[in-house]
Amino acid sequence: MHSLKSWFVLCLVSGFGCPVEAIAGPPRRLTSDGFIKLDPVFIRQGQFLVYGAQQKFNQIILMRVRLRDLQAQRLHAGANTSEFSASFAKNENQYAFIRNDGNLHVQLVIRNRKSGKDHRHNPGGGFAGVRSLSMSPN
Question: pTM above the 0.90 mark?
Fold first, then answer.
């Protein structure tokens, strides 16, 4: 009984379990291009949003939109194959994404933003790949 009482007091002091009102503005349209969007992730302390967009029926591209003025651009302007599911390290010096490199085959690409070098993980031949990824917080 004593431990339950201590837990209750801890919850009250810490605010755990107390209702908190979330304050937000009205919904705001971020794009109007008509593309299907997927895998959104905020970067640079919420100043930018990176997401996949289905540009063609057979190609998904990575887009970056600056939330201040809603200016959007391709993350990789020269990409000619599908790229999706971007994930950024906490310091944002490295990020990873999935790139389609063949028929029903994808590889994991880890890019160093400072050097511009890529490290690729190819899971092997056949119908192989990764669908979703995440970076460690560090």
Answer: no
